[in-house]
Amino acid sequence: MYNSNTKASDMPNIDKYKKALLAEMYYLKEQGGRKYRVTNGNLMSQNSSGYYYAFDLETELHIADDTPMSLQVGEVKVAGIVQFCEDVSGKLNSIETGN
């Protein structure tokens, strides 16, 4: 905690934390984060902006809305955005259809 006796050398090095945070962000952007199994996918709707699917999740998750994600089925990988994720169900918007 800061007080009048605190020296600059006692304060954490913010550059160290900034570099570590940037390294983690880069890794997640390039390699992705954790993988979760989804089941029972259902096409909810389709329009010019993409396809909307709902899935059951293998575990209770709380992922922020609009989080980028990818869905892989076999060798096909599709980029998408999490529309919402609550407990053990979720809905995503695929933004690339893949082949």
List the SSEs and their pairings.
Elements lengths: L13 H18 L6 E10 L2 E8 L10 E6 L2 E11 L2 E6 L5
Provide structural commentary.
This protein has 99 residues and is an alpha+beta fold. It has a domain at 36-94. Helix content is 18%, strand content 41%. It has one helix and five strands; from the N terminus they run αβββββ. It has a five-stranded antiparallel sheet, with no helix packed on it. Strand 1 and strand 2 (50-57) form a beta hairpin. The longest helix has 18 residues, at 14-31. The radius of gyration is 20 Å and the shape is elongated.
Q: How big a fraction of the residues is strand? A: 35-45%
**What gap, in angstroms, lies between the N and C termini?**
56 Å
How much is the radius of gyration in Å? 20 Å
Q: Describe the main β-sheet briefly.
A: 5 strands, antiparallel
Report the strand count. 5
Please work out how many helical segments DSSP would assign: 1
* Helix content class: 10-25%
SSE sequence, one letter per element: HEEEEE
Shape descriptor: elongated
Q: Could you name the ranges where pLDDT drops below 50 across 5 or more consecutive residues?
A: 94-99
Residue-averaged pLDDT: 76
Taking strands numbered 1, 2, ... along the chain, how are they ordered across the largest sheet?
Answer: 1-2-5-4-3
What structural class is derived from the secondary structure elements? alpha+beta
Task: Write a brief caption for the model.
The protein has a domain at 36-94.
List keywords for this structure.
99 residues, disordered C terminus, alpha+beta, 5-stranded antiparallel beta sheet
